[in-house]
Amino acid sequence: MNEAKKPEGLIGIVRGLVTLSPLFFPAYLLRLKVGGVPFTVLEIYTYVLFGLWVLTLFRPKKFYYLLPLPGYFFWAAILFLGVCLGLLNVPASMLLPDGSVFHSLPAALGIWKGWVLAPLLYFVVLTQSLTNATQIKTLLRIFVYSAVLVALAAYGMSLFGYGITYDLRLAGFYESANYLALVLAPALLLNIVWVFERQGGARRVHHFLDTATLTVLLHALFFTQSYAAILSVFGALFLYALYVMLQNRARMARAALGTLVLLATLAVIVFSQLHTPKFQQFLDVRNRSSTTVRFEIYRTTWHLIEKNWLWGIGPGLYQANYQTTAPEVLGHAPMEWNIPHPHNLYFAFWLNAGLLGLLALLGFVWLAHRQFTYPMLAFWGILLHGFFDTPFWKNDLAMIFWLILGAIALLQSYGTHSASHKKTQARVRPRRRASQRAPAETPVT
Fold first, then answer.
1. In total, how many domains does the chain have?
2. 139 falls within a domain
3. I need a surface site. Which of 67, 254, 308, 321 has the fewest CB within 10 A?
4. CB 413, CB 441: distance < 8 Å
5. Residue 243: enclosing H or E segment and its boundaries?
6. Mean pLDDT per 10-residue interval, the chain, length 445 residues
7. Is 126 within a domain?
8. Domain range holding 123?
9. What's the predicted TM-score (pTM) here?
10. Which residues are CB-neighbours of 278 under 8 A, at least 6 positions away?
């Protein structure tokens, strides 16, 4: 037990790198070539992390058994298989409407490497390195702090006239304000859990930090003006309030009051946006607006699904297929040509990884709901946001997805459903020699 509490050597290094990993998620923006092959710094970090973890498996005196997560690994394998099969149908190149040639196969292989393979390896190392609920909470805190740093960087850029979109939305170093919102929303939901479940005691530093980070994330998310992200946050909180009312009658009054506060807050936000140009454009279903563009995207996307319902179109090739297909489907040139995603998580899984990919996503949803754990709020936020955007098929967003799902899987095996657990509740996976067999999913305390 003492050995499990005090990791040393290579195992401790791997666990430390996993814990700090969210700080490196934005490093996908930094690119370099190794042997002529393009990589991001985030990919290299992940491959090094995976390699170090593999080395720990060959240290006989320090060997600890692998945590069996058959359901999660099964669906992860199905997703990987779906993407790989989709690659087989990708043409070497595509002729775009402007007459240029798009080298689709190299692009798809790059997406496979950066958006699928590296994040899956990260999921494996994460679930096999952290051994108790306290370590999982520390990882999630680092994720929240990394999102706060991203928000502060966006504020800093705005002071010099950068990181602001043409319609005055906060974007930071991302191409779109929506991308910033996709990073902030799950972190905000985790932060909200800690603020409202915190208890009295000696951890006043955490209480202060939770309140400060919540303030930054709320403010930054509001100024992204991403209605989808804001609605997903409120939707996840409504689901949590409903869960509390159904599971804990003693807290029903508190949950009901929280629901009323949420409704009042949402009403204030909507009222504050009623006369803004963005909201008026959102309501415009006749002229060129974000809503009418979405209608075109969904019509074209469904046509692509009907034609490629089994294997999909291949990873990362939505924009090229949209440009070549939309004029035929719509009967006219689309209002927007550069559409990188179908603005729907479920359609994106189907098109990028085929029917197997969609089934894998639904499999993850089912597994996560077998037992409630507090990162579920962030997962609900991702799923709800996914009806209007694509919170997975991008380097950092894929890592966030696997981080949240990995935390859920680990807490289902080790820890508690609550964000404010006691030390005695943090179950620990002991290290065992290779010759010792441990009961599947029965960690000792």
1. 1
2. yes
3. 254
4. yes
5. helix 227-247
6. 56 94 97 90 97 86 69 97 95 94 95 96 96 94 97 96 92 95 97 76 70 94 94 94 81 76 82 79 75 94 97 95 96 94 97 98 97 96 96 96 97 73 48 40 32
7. yes
8. 69-421
9. 0.90
10. 167, 169, 225
